[in-house]
Amino acid sequence: MSSTSTSTSTGSLARSRPIADRHLFGPGPCNPYPEATVALAEPLLGHLDPDFLEVMDEACDLLRLMWGTANPRTLPISGTGSAGMETAFVNTVAPGDVVVVAVNGLFGERMCDVAARHGAQVVRVDHEWGQPVDVERVVAAHPSPKIIAAVHAETSTGARSDIAALGAAKGDSLLLVDAVTSIGGIELRADDWGIDIGYAGTQKCLGVAPGLAPFTINDRAWERRVERPTSWYLDLGLLGGYVGEAEGSGQRTYHHTAPTAMVASLHAGLRRIEAEGLEQVWERHAEAGRLLQTGIEEMGLELFAAEGFRLPELTSVKVPEGVDSAAVRGYLLDRHNLEIGAGVGQYAASVWRIGLMGHNARPDRVALILAALKDALAHA
Ligand SMILES: *Cc1c(COP(=O)(O)O)cnc(C)c1O
Which of 89, 162, 163, 293 is the most exposed place for a label (fewest CB within 10 A)? Predict the structure, then answer.
């Protein structure tokens, strides 16, 4: 292609612009841990290469640490967090099964949609957005659901729910939990809390690019799974021949080509978290969130999520009266190279969402955000 070409192909666009190095302080993706980025540039391995299988096995071990589980069936699903959600429901819901879903934000809503598409009889328990899940109301919604589903960290509102309490109250039901924004950021103990099925994502507090969905399922849920799910790609029975059950057995069978570069990157990010210490990483998120939320209130702004249930990794802020929410976000991006998120649904224009996830959960990032936001509001 000549240098004077006016082609708008991405190649030509990429060459005509400098690489933007954004501060990713929205609801995900965040700026990855440097180790995770470096791993993406390493020479590629095949998905059945013994060296790669070692990386995969180690990544699964590290995921067990992140989940707080001993489940052998713990693996990264190929796809983003939503693929994890789909995997959870398609493998456990048969037509007519009752699924109680706690809805306190967008991702609870999405669970209802996904469960219904797989034939579930969905019983939804609605909450005001910004509030945590009300465990008593959720368990009272139906006498014997097959599954009770809830979101641990509602990224759409910034509220944290008490999954341990839900696990203690679940009775004979299976507890299915969305841990996309909690894993690697706040305390998560799948086995102690009674989580039977869990899915997560890589681009939030694990500090890796989007593309994989860390997944775990225990024996109790495995015994009650759907034997022949309507999805072939996300069939855990077939995937088990490649990871999990096949681990160390030398009996790997090809199912689909694992995204080896992404798994290597996840592995590197998880190693970084392990080296720092998982509990120290939770504490780092807690500290960064406290600093940001205190700073926001000192600026005279109001927080959206209910006090006492605020996530450190996702701070939701009420847009002040008379301020154009989108204009402020545009200014932050243009002038400060800094991305924050809009609100969701009816709160699209009235709430901002600021993420401090993974590598970004640091005091110097907080200072940057507060200074940029002050500047943006002075210009609004
Ligand atoms: C981001 C997110 C998802 C969806 O994950 P994708 O990676 O966007 O597919 C699901 N649940 C929660 C709580 C999330 O924050």
Answer: 162
